[in-house]
Amino acid sequence: MKSAAPGTEISRLNERQQSAQADAFRAPLSYTLALHAMALAAEIETLSSSIDILPRKAIAVLGEAGAPLYVLDFIVIGAIKRTLSLASGLLVLIEARNIVCVAQFCGCS
Description:
mainly alpha; 3 helices
């Protein structure tokens, strides 16, 4: 009976271990990506609904048509416009899958 060289047995063992590790990582990765995709879709929906709701809430805070305007109201209007612009820009970046700019936008660099 001829025995295999010691180096070949180790290389076969390493190949089997690498193959098993690759198989172990494939399933969880697709599952993890699916979870992230679902979470991302939920966050996009939340952001979109917030963009739609904010102007209505602003009108409630500032008052209906004919209500008097004060100096503070102009500051609130500016803050609301900035919030809407930032949220809309973030939504566009996310939908375009521009993750590098989203990370910079959110300060995750």
